[in-house]
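Dear support,

I submitted the protein below through the web form. The confirmation email said the job was done, but the results page showed an empty box. After a refresh the structure appeared. I'm attaching both so you can tell me whether what I see now is the final result or a partial one.
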Amino acid sequence: METLLEDLNKQQLEAVTHKKGPLLIVAGAGTGKTTVITRKIAWLIEQKLAKPDEILALTFTEKAATEMQERVDILMPMGFYDAWISTFHSFCERILKAHALDIGISNDFELLNGTRQWILVYKNFEKFNLSYYRPLGSPNKFIDALLTHFSRCKDEIISPHDYLQHVNNLRLGTDQPVKTKRIGLNAKSKLNVDTEETEIMRLEEVANAFHVYQKLLLDNNYMDFGDLINYTLELLNKRPGILKYYQSKFKYILVDEFQDTNFAQYELVKLLAGKGGNLGVVGDDDQSIYKFRGASVSNILKFKDEYPNAKQITLMENYRSTQIILDLAYKFIQANNPDRLEIKLKINKHLTTAKKDKGMIEVLEGEDLSGELNFAVKKILDLKSSDNIATWNDFAILIRANSAADELLPILENAGIPHTFLANKGLYRKPIVLDVICYMRLLDNLNDSISLYRVFSLPKFHLTHEDLSALLEHSGKKTLSLFETLLPAQTIPEVSPEGKAKIRTLLELIKKHAVMAKDRTASEMAIEIISDLGLEQKLKQETAAGSQNRELLDQFYKKIEAFEKENEHTGLHNFLEILELQNKAGDEGEIKFDPNLGPESLKVLTIHSAKGLEFKYVFVINLVDQRFPTRQKKDAIDIPEKLIKDILPEGDSHLQEERRLFYVATTRAKTGLYLTWGRDYGGKSLKKPSRFLVETGLVPDEKINKATGKVIFTKAKNAHAGAVYKKIPTSFSYSALNDFQLCPLKYKYKYYLKLPMRGSHHLSFGSTIHKVFEEFLKIYKKNQELKQVDLFGKTPSENPLPEFKILENLYEKNWLDNWYPSKLEKSKYKKVGSEMLKVFYNDLKAHEPEAKYIETFFKLKLGNYNFVGKIDRADKIKQGLSIIDYKTGKAPNSKGDLDQLYVYQWAAQEFLKEKVVKLKYWYLQGEGTMREEAPATEKDISKLKEKLLGTIEQILDAIEHDKFKDLHKKIKSHNCEFEHFE
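What the results page shows now:
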């Protein structure tokens, strides 16, 4: 904490130490805004101006919230518990889970993403009674447009009732007339009157559709992301007691990336902050690039109007780029005046840097698209060759849209440049994922010849061209599907013996999997398929390709797990039906990526995805007219101006947004910025350079320079393709370390390589019990709090313990069906679990504990590593905490290992700052056995840390020198399912 204010410049220091009242921090690109926010949080805590849970910090992505939490955690001596650092949506979800009942809606709601919203409308399409927005040829065409429109309405806090009222007012003539194109007709023309009536009917159809959609959400206990904000606003406006509670709770509210807030989000923070509250917002209007998802740049422009006494600080010292790049960016963005904060507030936003490097900006011009991209690649190779300290991670190619990568990636491949395309969608089209999906589709429909054709490309079943041609010829001749041709394939003379053997293997596997699929879940089938298709060979390779394949399959497996949580029928057929609906909705599968992880490689990503990142050398490609800036795409359905509460921009808002996007692209570069364009992209006419190249002054307005020609690369061997990739872990858990001691190969494949693994019915059962107890205890805890403090105007309940039926309902809702060896075994375990519920409930009834911590996450420092985990439960008692660890097995005859309890004690003392006086293992089978152990001494904790550190060092040594197999040989004989991987 002594170094908390070190290395801050004057403006940063002023922002961090601002104590009272509204605060506007205008933070230009690379000026250290995250440093300011995180140090401010730590400083407020250190100065005892607020406790950790009295500070609310809001941002826009889970990644940004996690990074903020981690950086604050590092600044604090031992971390801290229960900080409110989250996204807007996570914050509102947390509030509504606690208080939704106070406005008459269920707090057990389910949150829908865009795809699930589309599926909901698709399945209930007839209820919408559409006419205008139901074309005969494609009745579902406007589902996306309607959902986008409803989302925009929620951003503006427009309810279905508001919309219908507006339509009624139009009919009555009390609102302004609808704007229509007169086409030269006078205002009294009958045609014009008819046009206005048609327009009113169109709006009425949209309003009614909005009402139907919202009713569908409520009837099914769903919410979308807009609901989270709007219902929270409704809660705080309708329940002044709850509003007062949170206003007094949050002594400081900080909003990161404030320029990306929408109207509803701004109303929420204003409401929480109250008049003259300690509301601090950090942002930069020149980096507002999310209008397409509802962001309102006007929020930051009008903040000073709404808070005239706000302290205003401008961060101008850039720690990223050279001055030549900053000067170019500043000169360029002036074209957005006078609608910029610099003009509105009369401040100087010209960023400066102390960097001495001269930096470089170049325009690369190609004769055509191929020449342009090859010039870029040649420049990259030249820079890599001349810069001895640069790695491939220092290079990025920024594209305006993902489609631009189709032309670029083959050229990078030919040049032998290791690269990673950080697309945020397209998971289902990735080759290894598509292999699994096609095999699943084949199991579901044996006559799916397209899927079978792809299955034949897998190494295990790969047929020669001659064998495949023979099958296809036989298929056509006999009018059979490709699969039907496999059955008599053994008698087709043109099919080779090797081909016949592979066909037999495939048929046997299909028969095996078809039987399994009758009563196995989709996730269980996925693991079997990955294993039996031999895909593990691709996954266990410690190469860049192996790493990427593991990550992609892991994300696909998590999609299947999410499907199983959301649907009652979890079999393979139902999963494929949902997948087909997702395809219809245009969902190609979201891909989550972290550009800071993974093998060393040049990054290809969109400018939107590059926000918040920086690279030594940045290439911005395709800078031609109509590609960047793009043509304006208006919303298919506009919100009536009468209903819009936000301040609409006066200028060309689309062009201004595109300029800000270009500004963001240029300010990602630290040393070198390279802008490329080509004259011929195909088509009838030659391309013009982007107007942005002209506005920067880098390309003359009147004259286009003659292209310098083409650069053609021959196919180069990629020396990096087989490079060994070792991702060294920095975070460990007790269960991971324990698994390493029991079976080093299990650690290698489960935790290090993260291969999709067969699960365990023991784990499914344990997870069910833990989740049920967690949810029930949280309800119980809330009831206890309401009994103690009549905060919300309710009559306190005499007995806060919920009825047993609620516990049973939670058991049914959270029951995991996966990995049980048989229906009989599943039934047996479910009965055992029902008995455990009684043991658990009777104990609560008898002792009325105060569960202070329930499934509480912790993160500790162990040497140079992070040590993470969860405490099942910690009850508050007079002397301190009583920690309880649930065990779903029977109590052992002898005293068990105490390391796990000691870990929880260590976490409670260092992370939660609590005194631990009791440690308990609770064995839930039978009558339930509570085994109490004496708390660990300081010497015990010290020995535990040494033991854990020793295990970590063993793991790192095993990774570095590939010793897992040798270590495994030293382990006492055990039933190991991982030996076959070797």
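Response: this is the final, complete result; the empty box was a page-load delay. The first helix runs from residue 10 to 16.
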